[in-house]
Design goal:
mainly alpha, 2 domains, 5 helices
Length: 122
């Protein structure tokens, strides 16, 4: 049957080395994200659409945040008697760092806490 359709018997495509597949997929992914225009996005490429979106967070430096979080974790995990305490201290240090950078806000219970800058909004 295959011979009548002109299909020759040869190795399947999955015999290629993984780096060949990875290179091909990288090229296709790059092309789809930078050059392929989507009708569902108004004719924009995914990169154009992403650039047009508003940022959710103010411009934060990832390097500054990671450096502050790393130093807070190192300081928090110094010496503890209970084996669970270092991990809890690390978690608390990361959350406190995120709070100090304005990435999140911790609340307890159902009490309403005013959001800075929203006092004038009715």
């Amino acid at each position: 049957m295959k011979e009548t359709l002109g299909i020759r018997k040869r190795d399947p495509p999955w015999h290629l080395p993984i780096r060949v597949w990875q290179t091909t997929l990288d090229h296709v992914c790059h092309w789809m994200n930078t050059a392929f225009r989507r009708q569902s996005r108004g004719g924009k490429t995914p990169q154009d659409f992403h650039d047009a979106l508003h940022t959710w967070y103010p411009a934060l430096s990832r390097e500054d945040f990671y450096a502050a979080a790393r130093s807070a974790v190192e300081h928090a995990a110094k010496s503890h008697s209970d084996p669970c305490e270092p991990r809890n201290a690390e978690r608390a240090a990361i959350i406190e760092t995120m709070e100090s950078f304005g990435i999140l806000r911790r609340t307890r219970g159902r009490a309403r806490i005013p959001i800075p800058g929203c006092e004038g909004i009715s």
